Amino acid sequence: MTFLIVSGTIALIFGILLLVSPDGVRKMNMKVSRMMSNIDNFVCQYNQGIGLCLVCSGLTILFIAYYLYKTGAHV
User: Measured in Å, how far apart are the chain's first and last C-alpha atoms?
Assistant: First the structure.
């Protein structure tokens, strides 16, 4: 249950960041690692599509966590 909330929140935050400030994400990534340049270029090239996918998946994961909590299926 906690894993769903944490992963959903992280996906939601990064999705919104990619939609709002893709250059900020790129600068942050360049500070963290130079080895990921191929992935970085791909993400920045398709920032809107990846951002929307992350927002949708984050919302879906959070909904699943909420549903499991409301139905009492959480452990």
Answer: 7
Among residues 60, 63, 64, the alpha carbon closest in space to that of 52 is found at: 60
Please tell me the distance from the alpha carbon of residue 7 to that of residue 74, in angstroms, as a whole number.
Answer: 16
Rounded Cα–Cα distance for residues 42 and 75 (Å): 38
C-beta separation of 8 from 59 below 8 A: yes
pTM listed for this prediction: 0.58
Kindly calculate the radius of gyration of the chain based on its CA atoms and give it in whole angstroms. 15
Instruction: Write the CA distances from 17 to 5, 65, 66, integer angstroms.
Output: 18, 22, 23
**What are the tens digits of pLDDT across the range 35-73?**
666 777 788 889 899 999 999 999 999 999 899 989 987
